[in-house]
Amino acid sequence: MRRPRIILATLLLTAIPVYAADIPQGERRSGTSFMAPQTKAMQDDDTANPGMLWTLEGEELWNKKYGTSDKACADCHGDARTSMKGIAARYPAFDRELGQPVDLEQRINLERARHQQASPLAYESHELLALTAFVAQQSRGMPITAGSDDELAPFIARGRELFMQRQGQLNLSCANCHDDNWDKHLAGSAITQAHPTGYPLYRLEWQTLGSLQRRLRGCIFGVRAQPYAFGAPELVDLELYLMTRAAGMAMEAPAVRP
Amino acid sequence: MAALINVPPRAKRGDIIEIKTLMSHIMETGYRHTADGAVVPRDIITSFSCRYNGTEIFRADLFPAIAANPFISFFTVADASGTFEFEWIGDRGFSATAKAAITVE
Q: What ranges do the domains of chain B cover?
């Protein structure tokens, strides 16, 4: 006996414009506003926010001597609480020597190479995340100012192009979700507007702290495209565009996300 | 290993106070495999305890289902000034301690 087979073919034709409309300034919302009250409470309580474990270790590393120069970050920059205030809010920033923007992780590794004569820290390594989190924490509550340098304009434009570019087997651009459908859900999860206000952040799904590049690679994998390698200029351009898109919003690092 | 402890610095005698602890740990379950099929060995915290002026007031056993960086919070009655001593013990010889002081008026 053969079971009757029901084949349901649903063809969804959705007309999505090639260039999606930007989110109006007044409607921009941090990822925090999409979270459950419990997750918000975890982020707001510095003794419950696991990201604070990394900032604690970052402070230790800030004062630790590295490389053949035998210098610590603190030997040049002094107290990070004053010297690093607002720094993370303006990254990725233009590096004149390289002639391209670098993000905060890359800046830390450049400083290590140029001034400490130390080997670079691997992306997503505990040490690099700890230092980045500690530096980013000093900008908490400050408005994002990235991209104000005129030399960044072509890189921001390229980042925007990547944001609008459909890619992967699902043929989706970042904008298809984060500009056009941020008020909806993907399964049980809120889509959100993709404002990178809290990086590096503690993601409950990751069970650890992670960088914006990790998040971007995760999204690119999600639309079944080949993710760019860590440190790729495309990822930095995307980071830069996202930060300018969130200009003026308050920094929340280290944030917590589901 | 970093730990975050939140004990109110002062309290009135007889007050019920909340103690919050956050410990940095990967809490590897022992049920996961690498891409080539090898088991990732279990590496978890197995026990947590808190002593208040030498007397144990709280103890917990931890298991593989508990998330990374375990957050443990509990309540006690503030009855004397002194110190809280915290201890985490786990696999692969893991051991960490922390202290916090309280003034009871």
A: 3-30+43-104
pLDDT in tens, A170-191: 999 999 999 999 999 999 999 9
Q: Spell out which residues of chain B touch residue A56, defining contact as CB-CB under 8 Å.
A: 2, 4
The answer to whether A89 and A147 have CB atoms below 8 angstroms apart is: no
Substitution target from A39, A53, A57 for chain B, most B beta carbons within 10 A: A53
Q: Are A191 and A181 in contact (CB under 8 A)?
A: yes
**CB–CB contact B69 A47 (8 Å):** no
ipTM over 0.90: no
The CATH superfamily holding the domain B3-30+43-104 is Immunoglobulins (2.60.40.10)
Q: A76 catalytic, yes or no?
A: no
Find the closest chain A residue to B66 by CA distance: A207
Domains of chain A: 29-258 (1.10.760.10)
Strands (E), B1-105: 3-6, 10-11, 16-23, 45-52, 55-61, 71-77, 82-90, 95-104
